[in-house]
Amino acid sequence: MMNHTLTFLLLFSTCLTAQEEWAEMEVEEAVEIASVATLSREAAEAGDPAAQLQMARCYFTGSGVPQSAGKGLYWVRKAADQGYADAQCQLAECYSKGLGLERNAVEACRWWVKAAQQNHPEAMYRLGMAHLSGEGVIKSETLGLAWLERTAATGHIEAICSLGFCRLQGVGGVQNFAEAAVLFEKAAATKHANATFWIGFCKLHGVGTPRDREQAIALLLRAADALSAPAMVQLGRCYELGLGVQADADKAFDWYWSAARMENTEACYRLGCMLLEGRGCRPNREKAAKWLRKAAENGHHRAQQKWDEMKQKS
Questions:
Q1: Neighbouring C-beta atoms of residue 208, cutoff 10 Å
Q2: CB proximity list for 182: less than 8 A, separation 6 or greater
Q3: What's the Cα-to-Cα distance from 280 to each of 46, 170, 246, 285, 288, rounded to whole Å?
Q4: Considering only CA atoms, which of 14, 94, 86 is closest in space to residue 50?
Q5: What radius of gyration do the chain's Cα atoms show?
Q6: Does position 16 have pLDDT exceeding 90, yes or no?
Q7: How far does Cα 240 stand from its chain's mean position?
Q8: What is the distance between the alpha carbons of residues 93 and 99, in angstroms, rounded to a whole number?
Q9: In the chain, N or C terminus with fewer CB closer than 10 Å?
Q10: DSSP string, 201-254
């Protein structure tokens, strides 16, 4: 029988071996990252725009070089000035987020236009969304939809999902539930959480597609597993009202709670209502007021009314 001392030594030796292997892997990875930065610098200084963009990313992330947004911006601008679409899109993102410089939506769009004119999918998508919101460019649903349609044709998943939402809402005066459902289903096939939620919603209510509540619940659960707060709220409604599942106030409360913790305004409102009325939980006016106030501060009108009623009765 192996004695305890020998067993301990063997375990200790095994731990050391594992630690040494991890240390060697980390050293190898660090050397590789540093090597990428070195090779990128040589090519970047020789004028290669792809290498200049890589060098910019190294500085933005601190990979193989000291992190520096300013130096990252220097290199991405050099690549963008050469007409490199990937770099132009990255520079637009810098202006959009204020990375290494002051935020400027107009400049962001100017660079997205340059990249979009070279059929860069992400730039086309961002330009389309900018036209829909009117941030940095003239607000135009027509132009926004045109860019989204053009981008969706390239297989850009976010564009496909956004276009589906536009069709669902009738943006640009064209409301087409059937087309929206087809677009959501296409994007959901790639496990896109938001699209999975929307096709689940469509199947739950029979919007643009035959009603199939069993499949809808499965889709909503899949989206919720991917941390889609709207899917969690919809599941809460299903359990609250008995849509596709047996009504269960406790489960409804749990789904609203999960979504409310993710700052979802509708979930905050519904959680506050359940706490106020004692459904799926013990009544708690103090906690109900907290969640209703939170929803009201985010512009939820019904939450504002409930909160005002609570204040009048207190």
A1: 22
A2: 164, 208
A3: 66, 37, 14, 14, 13
A4: 86
A5: 26
A6: no
A7: 27
A8: 8
A9: N
A10: HHHHHTSSS---HHHHHHHHHHHHHTT-HHHHHHHHHHHHHTSSS---HHHHHH
Sign for the pseudo-dihedral over CA of 91, 94, 95, 96:
positive
Q: What is the pTM of this model?
A: 0.82
76, 79, 84, 85 alpha-carbon torsion, rounded to 10°: 10
**Least confident among 214-228, 266-280, 299-313:** 299-313
At position 230, the amino acid (one-letter code) is P
3-state SS assignment for residue 139? coil
**Residue at token pair 């509540």:** 213
pLDDT category of residue 37 using cuts at 50, 70 and 90:
low
> Per residue in 70-82, is it b (16+ CB within 10 Å) or e — as a string?
ebbbebbbbbbee
Which pLDDT does position 13 carry in this prediction? 43
Phi then psi dihedrals of residue 279, to 5 deg: -105, 120
Entry field: residues in the chain: 314
C-alpha 121, offset from chain centre: 18
**DSSP code, position 198:** H
Residue 312 confidence (pLDDT)? 86
Helix axes 229-241, 249-260, angle to 10 degrees: 160
Residue whose C-alpha is closest to residue 118's, from 89, 161, 139, 142: 89
Q: What is the pLDDT of residue 293?
A: 95
Write out pLDDT tens, residues 242-300.
999 999 999 999 999 999 999 999 999 999 999 999 999 999 999 999 999 999 999 99
Per-residue tokens: 302 = 């019904």
